[in-house]
């Protein structure tokens, strides 16, 4: 699984699988015994044809948002080390997902350059301060939390007002509409 700091699980990437007929299989379920719950996985190396799983023929980039890459990469099971499948080269699908994330970011509302530079400086200063003077760093973090809480609340209410006049929130944040709504709730719900 690949994730970015900005988009997290909303755009989690992976090497998706395709069967020989070009279809994408669902997750594989594993019965752990007498429990009512089942473990499930969509990891590419599970699709070996064993334990009831279908056999994957190709890999492609996949994202939790529903995006699927166009490029297909033949899967050579003879080259997969069953004890260490992570050693198999999945760079093609991963690179395709990275391009998808670049496109998502490009379509999101940009953070003004001046603010991005300041945020980078704050991050570097806090990292240094955490090593040199941890209590001072904690005081600074507390102040940032207060700033984020107030600014987040104001921005969330402003985004809600924009949404009521027809402007979707999700695309501007690079998220699905549901994920964007959850982010707004994080700032508007009382703590």
- Decide which structural class fits the backbone: alpha+beta
- Computed over alpha carbons, the radius of gyration is 22 Å
Strand order of the largest sheet: 1-4-5
Largest sheet composition: 3 strands, antiparallel
Describe the structure in brief.
The chain has 191 residues and is an alpha+beta fold.
Keywords:
single chain, 191 residues, 2 domains, 5 helices, 12% strand
Could you walk me through the main structural features you see in this protein, from its secondary elements to its overall organization?
The chain has two domains: 8-107, no CATH class; 113-188, no CATH class. Helices cover 44% and strands 12% of the residues. The protein is built from five helices and five strands; from the N terminus they run βββββααααα. It has helices at residues 91-107, 113-132, 134-164, 170-173, 177-188; strands at residues 13-18, 28-31, 38-41, 58-63, 73-74. The protein has a three-stranded antiparallel sheet. The chain has a two-stranded antiparallel ribbon with strand order 2-3. β2 (28-31) and β3 (38-41) form a beta hairpin. α2 (113-132) packs antiparallel against α3 and α3 packs across α5. The protein is elongated, with a radius of gyration of 22 Å.
